[in-house]
Design goal:
The chain is mainly alpha-helical. The chain is 77% helix and 7% strand. It has helices spanning 2-5, 8-25, 28-32, 51-87, 97-141, 149-165, 168-180, 182-192, and strands at 33-39, 42-47. Helix 5 (97-141) runs antiparallel to helix 6, helix 5 (97-141) runs antiparallel to helix 7 and helix 7 (168-180) packs across helix 8. Keywords: Membrane, Transmembrane, Transmembrane helix.
Length: 195
C-alpha cells in the first residue's frame, strides 16, 4: 500500500493540490486588505479591523504554535532514528574493532553536532517568529482602545520589527550551522569550490 502511494503522479497531485489550497486559503488577504489612515499623511496597508484582523491573529498564533510543535516532534524523531541506527551496528570481529571504535566516535560527534544544530534552529525560530504572535495578541486586546498618534507610531514600528524578525531564523540557521558543524562547513566548501 505504501509503494502504491510512492509514485511521481501521486507526488504531483499532492503538490498541485497543496499549492492550490494554500493559494485559495490566503486569497482573503488580497480582498480584505485596505489602506488605513492613522494620522495626517500616515497611511498603512493593513487588514480591515474586526473579523479579518481576528482571523489573521488567531491563524498566526495557531500556525506558529503548530510549526514549533512540529519542529520539536520531527527533531526528536530524527534523533531517535539516528540512535536506533547507531545501536544496530554490524557485528564485528577482533581485527576490525579499532576501526569500529573510531567510526563510533565520529558518529557520536556528528550526532552531537546535529543535536546542537537542531536545538539552535528550534530556539531561533521560537524566539524570532513568536514575537509577531505576541504582538498580534496585544493588538487584539487593545483594538478598541483610543490610541494617540505617538502610540500608533510606536505600534507601527514594533509591527515592522516583528515582521522583520520573522525573516531572521532562515538566515541565522545557515550561520549557526557553519559555526557548529565541521561537516556542514566542509560540504559548503565543496559546493562553493565546485568540487
Amino acid at each position: 500500500m505504501t509503494r502504491r502511494r510512492s509514485t511521481y503522479r501521486f507526488a504531483y497531485i499532492c503538490i498541485v493540490t497543496g499549492t492550490i489550497f494554500w493559494a485559495l486559503f490566503h486569497s482573503h488577504t488580497l480582498i480584505f486588505a485596505t489602506i488605513l489612515q492613522f494620522g495626517p499623511y500616515v497611511y498603512v496597508c493593513y487588514f480591515q479591523p474586526g473579523i479579518e484582523t481576528n482571523f489573521i491573529t488567531y491563524y498566526t498564533i495557531i500556525t506558529e504554535t503548530l510549526v514549533i510543535v512540529l519542529m520539536i516532534t520531527c527533531g526528536l524523531c530524527s534523533l531517535n532514528n539516528i540512535r536506533k541506527i547507531r545501536r544496530i551496528g554490524a557485528i564485528t570481529n577482533e581485527s576490525t574493532r579499532t576501526a569500529q571504535n573510531n567510526n563510533l566516535q565520529s558518529t557520536s560527534s556528528k550526532e552531537r553536532q546535529f543535536v546542537f544544530m537542531l536545538i539552535l534552529d528550534i530556539i531561533t525560530y521560537t524566539l524570532f517568529t513568536f514575537v509577531l504572535a505576541i504582538f498580534l495578541i496585544y493588538e487584539q486586546i487593545t483594538q478598541n482602545d483610543v490610541k494617540s498618534f505617538d502610540q500608533t507610531q510606536i505600534e507601527n514600528i514594533i509591527r515592522n520589527l516583528c515582521l522583520f524578525s520573522i525573516t531572521i531564523p532562515s538566515c541565522l540557521s545557515c550561520y549557526g550551522n557553519l559555526l557548529i558543524s565541521k561537516t556542514f562547513r566542509n560540504e559548503v566548501k565543496k559546493v562553493l569550490l565546485c568540487r
